[in-house]
Each structure stands twice: as structure tokens, then as C-alpha cells.
Amino acid sequence: MNAPVLECQSLTRWYGQVIGVSTVDCQVGPGVTGLLGLNGAGKSTLFKLMAGQLRPSLGRVLLLGHDLSHHRGLFRWIGFCPEPDALYESMTGREMLVYLLRLQGFDAPESERRAQLALDRTHLADAADRPVAGYSKGMRQKIKLAQALAHDPKVLFLDEPFNGMDPVSRYESMELIRALGREGKTVMVSSHILHEVEEMTSIILLIQNGQILAEGNIREIRDLVERHPHQVRIECEDARRLAVDLLPMEEVLGVKVEAPLRLVVETDRPRRFFGRLPHALLSSGVKVRGFQTLDDDLKSLFEYLVEDAG
Amino acid sequence: MNALRSIIRTRGLVQAYGPKIVLRGIDLDVPPGASGLLGPNGAGKSSFLRSILGLVPIREGRAEVLGLDSQRDALAIRRRIGLVPESDCLVPGMNAVEMTAYCGQLVGMARDDALERAHQVLYYVGLGEARYRDLGGYSQGMKQRLKLAQALVHDPDLLLLDEPTNGMDPPGREAILELIRDVSRNKGLHVILSTHLLPDVEETCDQVIVLHEGRVAETRPVAKSIIEAGRVFDVAGRGDFDRLRQLLMDAGHSVEDRDDGLRVTLNGALGVEPILQVAESMGEELELRHLVEAGHSLQDSFMEAVR
Amino acid sequence: MPIHDQGYRHWDGEIRQHPLRWWPIAQRGVMAVLPQRKVILLIVLAWLGPLVKGVTLYGKLRATDLLTQVLGDKGAEVGAKFFWGAIDQQGFIVLLFVVLVGSNLIAADRRFKALQLYFSKPLTPLDYILGKLGIVGTFLVLTVWMPVMLLWIFGLMIEPTAEFFGAVWFVPFSLTLYTLLLIAVAGLLILALSAVGQKGVFIAGAWIILFGYGPFQLVILLLRELSGQAFWSLLSVERDLEHVGAWFFGNATDPELHPVASLAVLLVVVAACYAVLRRRIRPVEVVL
Where are the domains of chain B? Predict the structure, then answer.
């Protein structure tokens, strides 16, 4: 990775005596990054700091190598979709976008053009000329998304953008975010629905109590969690016989027969185990229907990390 | 509890507000157990719930809940269901015990019964410690738990939930979903879960109903439907998947890239062996972590049904 | 020696199906309001007037001429009119009480979307309205019906003569009838306002204007004087109530208007308020 697009250096923010975010050091590069954490962990505070909406108490945010609090011009490159739902109710969606684009400094025709583009990308074109007050919750989220990307920023911060959207809108918006990532934009997105984060990216930033708990690739982080052995469920025609054949493998911690046709193998050395599993299955001779790792997903990872951190 | 073939049964159900038709003839037999109710905004989910609760007159057709007619026996139905509404709906100035007991009384429980049950269900939903605190200071997660408690206080036969995990973080969601699973699988309550979150349905329900533009677009079991047994597999893991793809194609199988791995359609013999053999030949440079028969996911069939 | 399930347990108690489904709403509402200090204070205040009336009653029936002189109204005989006076003097307290207790009853439920909770239970909109009305009604019974009733009993105790009984025997009936009318009119009016308005100030203001106090009352009086038409007074709900109430107690106060006209106006008000309530409290909005 070349120079990171976004860098936080010892970023700290207090609210009076309450700490919102504490000595956060992190680098975020192009592509989609999922920001995860419990309610109250500091996600929204971090977003606001990174987007320059809040001043840090200590530390600084570097955007494209420059300190965000000293270079107002950098705001041109930031798109922010905040979580609270505060819109210009009496304007139509289009009017609102054009108005915000004019504030960014675009001339009228250019603002119209970009507004249309943003409406198309967020699948809002049909509702563009209706007042925002009549929008459904999902449409309100979409218009917030549209205003975040209308001025073509390099960095986007999206705080719970799917909240209240129906499945179709979620799907479309997830596609949009993935596309933005592929286009080389730096997108940070938070969501409580871990499945959806997983579908958009494999890079996460997990914060807990205002501090970074883990960052990087989900799978690499998972392998670092040694306290929880990996569990593999195997479906086969004779679970007991297969259990006997697998137990001698030195990477195997234990085998549990869940049902006559199903067993779960535990291993604390996943790399070697999975490398050798095909051979072990073939040489056992028991007919196998398939297998899957049970806790290889973001949900388990989140659980393990947050639980262990207390 | 008498054995019901379907907990909700509708025939030609038409619902309209003035000239605006929202349900266009729904024929549905919801089997016992837990069902997810899905649909885009405006599909008619809310209208459907309203009409089976007998809250609005039905324009045409009929609806039965737990064997009771939704128009004639609306109050009897509401004695046997518990509803967890989507919005906050809790007025500050009461604590959880008062609130829950009050809801029990509104259903028709005697004051003492309601109080005793309130304590029980509040412990059950995990509000035991907080039950004497004013609910004005509750967090989102606690409010959701309280809303569940007030719906369970009279031990309903059918639990209706509208977006019960809205705004909750992953552990909070998991806790609510676990409670729903428990009452549905271990305690025999029927559950209807109306939500926009497909993962919630996957984790709690046995079947899904997809509504679209006032009609039933699809009903199916939640378990993914296998595309073709023994022939189509999804593989995922770490290591050199480009090479794996090449080797599989060389062996005559067709391979398609997926988000997190490959989808392999076997050419010739059925079963996992051909894939395992290729993996074995690559040695430990390949870590095969998933090898499962491919199916249509809920997401796939949902998107297909509403498009 | 079984291990008992600490998780969810079934409950096999009885769910009652009685027509008084609204009762828990009224009960809960009263219990929520009653412990408030300002409410207790107001109840105490509400009993001061009748207490003074009690002393007066004793004076009129028993005490010396001197006392009667001090209290004025010399030689006035105690009859139904006296008890109507006791009710009439509660007017201001009633106004305060109804605003204090009633203005938030439906507004809060609407603000927090609690109607959803009510209508997911076996309740009809009428049950809900009756329950809320019961809360207002309880306090009107406490501040109007009860003190005057006690006053009447007290009167009979110190003057247990056939003559006195003959003059006031119908007071309990008139009192009950009037209280019911008061609950229906004042209660439904405040509930309707509570269902329409959001802010307490708005509700209280609208209540005072509609109920016919303050400047509005003056305007009505002025109109009546200027035009010479008595029917203007019908516009004041408070005047109508007073008119009908006095009539129940055997003496109409306004010779130019027939009490039945006032009663008709009141019934129209009740019907209108009920219609407003039914429009604003619709189970349609329950599942959104």
C-alpha cells in the first residue's frame, strides 16, 4: 500500500469528562473498510472526527497527507452520511442535492448534472421531485447517501447507512458501496448487520470502549484469535468411523459426533489442518457430503474479540 | 394446545384504504412454527398484520388466526397473540414491572396474576436487574426486551414481531434472536417475524413468506434449497485459489467466481471426491475451509421474487 | 427431585373476558396521577370549599342568629339550592383538575406511539376512551360528587326532620346526574383536545377558551348584551353546564333560555368530542 488516504494519529476526543474516542492510531486505504463496535463504543464520534465535524481534543487526522483541522479545503474531498436523520423536509430530493452542491461551489448546471447522477446511483430518480417529508425511512437513508457522494469525494464516511432500508434498498446500496470501493474511493461504513459488512468488504476496523481493538483482514484477524479453536462441521455417511480416522491427526484437538451423519472437529492449528484435510478425508474412505468452518465468519470473530476484551 | 394445520389461513384477502388497494387477494396457509414475513416497503406487510389482528375491516375474502375469524373474533384473537411493535411505544413514568403487569391486565389477567407473571417474563428477557427503574432511561436494547416481555406476559400462542432488532448492536441482536428461537423451538409458541433483515429470518425462522405489491410472491423453507445434489458445490478458503480454479477447469468441471470463493459444477461423477482430489494434489498451499453443496440463498430467492 | 426450568414458562391462569375491559386503564391512570404532590394539594383545596359550606350549613340549621348574621344570607332557608351552590363553587377547581389530569392522557400515548400497545390487546377504541374518561371521572367524583354527598348526609344528620328531607330528598339524584354530565362534557372535551394537540400549553389554552372561561366568556356576555339575544350564552359550555345543573336542582338561573336548549348544546359537544376522538384514535395506525 502506498501512502494511506486517511490516517489518525493519537486521536482522542473527550466530551467533558466522558471519553468518546481514545488514542486512536490507524491508517485507512482505498476500498471499503467496515467500522464495527457495540452501541456506544465510539463509532459515530470517530466518524465525526475523521470527517472534520468534530475537533479532536488531542491528536490529529491526516487526509491525503494534510492535517484536516488546518486545511479547510480538504472538505471538498469528504463525503459524510451521518446517522441522525435531519433533512430539509420541505425541499424535494433533487432540490436538496442541488442546494448542497451549490454550497460546495459548483455552478447551477453542474449541480443539476451531479444531482441527477447521484439520484441515479442511489436508485432515487423516481422520487427525486417529491418533498423529502414524504419519503420512507429507506428513501431518507438513500438521499443521505446521495448527498454524501454527489460532489465526487475521495473519502466517504457512512454511519449506519442501511438502517431502516428494506431488503431491496439494502442490496442496491451495498452494490453501490462495493462499486465505490472498486472505483478506488476510500469508503468507511458502519453497520450492525455483520453479514452485510462481510458482503461488502473483508477489511474491518473494530473499536471497543473508544479504542481500536482490531484492524485488518477478517480472516487474518480470525487466525490470530488463538483462544477459540476453529470448528469444522463435516457431513458424511458415518460420523463415528470418520471420527476415528480423524482423531489421530495431530492438529485435531477433539471430535464431537453431533448426529449419526454429522461431526464437528476442533483444531487450534487451522492452517496445517485445512491443508491436510482433503488427504485425510480421501484416505478415510468414508463418503463425505461436505464440510464447513463454523466460526470463520465475522459474527464469530466479533463475538470472540468483544467478549475477550470484556 | 390443539393441533392446528395452519396458524394463519387467508383466502382471497383484499385490503384497501379508500381507493388504494394494498392487499390484492392473499391466499396463505402459514404452518405452525416460526415464519419470517419479508417484503419491500409498500409490499403490504403492515396491512397484512393489521387485517389478521382485526384492526381494519377486510374488503374481501377472509382471514383466520389460530382458527378464529379475524373480523368476528378480533378480540379473542388478540387475547391469544402477543405483538412486539416496531416503534418505541413506551410511555416514561413507569417501571418495567408496572408496564408489563399493566399490559397483562389489559389482556384480561387479574392484577395479582399479571404482577407475578411480569416478574417472571422480565427475568426471562434479561431485565431482572433493571425492572424497577423508570423505563424512560432505558437503552434501545432494554426497550426491545421490555416490548418482548409485555407481549409474552399472558403466555400467548402466537408472537408477532415487527423489526424486533432495530438499532441493536450484534450482541444485543443475538440475544433477542436467541429468545425468539427459544420460545419458538422449545416452548411451542408460534412466531411471525416481520423484518427487513434477512439474516434475522435465517437465524430464527423455519419458513419465509415474501410479499410483493400486495400479493404473496413466494413461500419457501428458510433452509437453502440445494441446486443439484452432489453436482454443484461452493468452495472457499485460503491459498492459491487461482490455481485451484485452473486445475478444476483442466479436469473438465465448470467454475464460476463467487464473492468469497468458487462455485464448481462437476462434470461426470457426483460427490465431493473430484474436488478433494484436486485440493489434495495442491498439498498444504491450499487451505480448503468450506466445501458445501451450493444452494439458492434467501437473498437470492428474495431478490428474484420481488423483481 | 426435578430441576425446574428457569427459562420461559407457560402460564395456565385464566384470562377474563368481562365487558369492563377499560377498567385497568382507568385504574392505572388514577394510580399514576394520585401520588403527585400537586394533585394531593389540589384535592385538599377542593375540599376546603365544601368544608366551609358544612360550617355554614351547621350555622343555618343550628346556630344562633349572630352566626347567621355574620355569614349573611339571613333567614335563607336551606334547600336544594344550597347544595347546588356547593357544587357551583367547585367550578374553578374542576377546571384546574381536568387540565392537570386530562391534558396529557392521550397526547403522551400519541407522542410515544403507545396506542400500538393498547390495540394489540383485546381492546376497542371505545374501551380506550372509556378508560381514559374514567381517570378524569374519578377525580371529578372525588372533588364534586363526594364532598356534596357528604354535605347532604351531614345536613340530614343534624336536621333529621321530615320537612328538611322533603325539601332535599332528590339531591343525590340531581348530584349524580350532574356529575355524569360534567364527566361526559368536561372529560370528553379535554380528551379530544389531548388527542388533537401535542403541547400541554396548547391543550390547556384551548381548554380554557372552549370551556368558556376568561376573555371568551366576556366576549359572549358582551355579544348577548349588545344584541339582546340570549342564545349567545349557549356558546359558553361552562354557562350551559351551570344552567342545566341549576335546573337539575330545581331552579333555572337564566329566565330567557330554556335549560333544554343548554342541554342540547352540551349533548352536541359530547357527540362532537366523541367523533374527534374516534377519528384520532384509530387502530389502523397500530402496525406501521
Answer: 8-221, 225-299
Q: For residues A193 and A93, state if they share a domain.
A: yes
What value of ipTM does the predicted structure carry? 0.86
C-alpha cell at A274: 485445512
Q: Which uninterrupted H or E stretch holds A167?
A: helix A167-182
| A247 and A172 assigned to the same domain | no
**Is A233 found in the same domain as A145?**
no
pLDDT in tens, C191-234: 999 998 877 788 888 887 777 666 777 787 888 888 877 777 78
Residue B209 belongs to what H/E stretch? strand B207-212
Does C122 sit within 8 Å of B75, measured CB to CB?
Answer: yes
Pair A202, A239 in one domain? no
Which range of residues forms the domain containing residue A185?
A: 6-219
Q: Can you tell me which residue has the cell 390547556?
A: C204
Cross-chain Cβ contact B85/C109 below 8 Å: no
Amino acid letter for position B4: L
pLDDT surpasses 50 at C74 = no
Domain at B8-221, CATH homologous superfamily: P-loop containing nucleotide triphosphate hydrolases (3.40.50.300)
Nearest residue, CB atoms, A170 vs list B168, B169, B196: B196
| Angstrom distance (rounded) from CA C87 to CA C146 | 10
Q: How far apart are CA A129 and CA B95, in angstroms?
A: 45
**DSSP 8-state code for residue B128:** T
For residue C118, the number of C-alpha atoms closer than 13 Å in the C-beta half-sphere is 27
Candidate from A164, A195, A289 with C-beta closest to B272: A289
Best of C120, C194, C288 to mutate (most B CBs within 10 Å, chain B):
C120
Would you give the DSSP letter of residue C247? H
Q: What angle, 0 to 180 degrees and rounded to 10, lies between the N-to-C axes of helices C200-211 and C91-102?
A: 150
- Contact at 8 Å (CB) between B86 and B127? no
Other CB atoms within 10 Å distance of the CB of residue C217? 18
CA–CA distance from C194 to each of B306, C100, C102, C198, C277 (Å)? 42, 11, 7, 7, 9
CB contacts of B49 in chain C (<8 Å) are 287
CATH 1.25.40: does it fit domain B225-299? no
Confidence of residue A228 (pLDDT cuts 50, 70, 90): confident
Confidence label for A31 from pLDDT (cuts 50, 70 and 90): very high
> B8-221 with B225-299: one CATH topology?
no
Over residues B105-118, mean pLDDT: 94
Q: Which of C233, C86, C167 is nearest to C243 (CA)?
A: C233
Q: What distance lies between CA A308 and its chain's CA centroid?
A: 21
Shared domain for A149 and A252, answered yes or no, is no
Instruction: Give tens-digit pLDDT for A104-155.
Output: 889 999 999 999 999 999 999 999 999 999 898 889 999 999 999 999 999 9
| d(C-alpha C26, C-alpha C34), whole Å | 12
Q: What is the pLDDT of residue A84?
A: 85
Q: What total number of domains does chain A contain?
A: 2
Q: How near does any CA of chain A get to the CA of B154, in Å? A: 30
Q: What per-residue confidence (pLDDT) applies to B304?
A: 86
Residue A307 lies in a domain: no
